Amino acid sequence: MQPVQPARKMWLAVSVNARELAPVGWDGAVNAWRVAGSVYRMGRREWVTAAGWQDAHNDGVRTVIDLRNPAERQPRDADPDVGGALAAFDVIFAPTEDPDNREFKALCVPYLNDPAYYAANARLFPDKLAAVFKAVAASPGGVVIHCSAGRDRSGMVAAMLQDLAGAPDGDIVAGYQAAMRGINERHRTRLTPHPHERYLDEETLAPLLQSRGEGVLDFVRSLNTREYLLRHGVSEPELEAILSALGARVAL
């Protein structure tokens, strides 16, 4: 007889092929998704074309929050020329980590690429994560949060935002899994191979979707995003502003 698995793990196994989330169709944007309300996430902003930035502006976005470290912000030859398109946005640099921190470097090799290490990131760099949420609160309009792939740093912040807004388990898991699939598809079609990652077929990807979906959910449910942010300098009015951007009004 097969052992009975815990209900949550059984549900997560099913969630690998859960309902498809609608991607955001800004021209050139890679791995772009709506988190909730007027808050979005995506991969590196340099992929977005001038027309894509107009699309984002039409959707109400006014602030771009870049979670990458300074060394990652270099343009690439294939990046489109967007002229002055970004002048319509406030671009905020808010890295979620110190890449030179010894403990972080030992855990996250070659970089943060698994929700299993989100808790360590939150423990080591609370002020940096708080700064991201303060930037969301201060935006005069919609916000797009991006890292490089649009999967883990933006995924960590997106899951915290969903947790703050009271999203159900399934939405948090599905959001992360959609981003995993999104960047995996990018690896399938990109002309220049990624130095550390490759396209994964469904047989290889499926168990990672399950384990990492469980990991991101464990992270936010253990963290208690609201209490974490309050402890690290995000004010009650700022939480209210974030919830408003997410389209969620809950009692604080």
In a nutshell, what does this entry contain?
The protein is an alpha/beta fold and 252 residues long. The protein contains ten helices and five strands, in the order αββαββαααβααααα.
| Termini Cα gap | 48 Å
Based on helices, strands and strand pairing, what is the structural class? alpha/beta
**What low-confidence regions span 5 or more consecutive residues with pLDDT below 50?**
1-20
Q: The CATH topology is what?
A: Protein-Tyrosine Phosphatase, Chain A
Shape: globular
Instruction: Give a count of the beta strands, DSSP E runs of length 2 or more.
Output: 5
The mean pLDDT is 90
Element layout with pairings:
Blueprint: H1 7-15, E1 33-36, E2 39-42, H2 50-58, E3 61-66, E4 90-93, H3 102-107, H4 118-124, H5 126-138, E5 142-146, H6 153-164, H7 169-189, H8 202-223, H9 225-231, H10 236-245
Parallel strand pairs: 2-5, 3-4, 3-5
Antiparallel strand pairs: 1-2
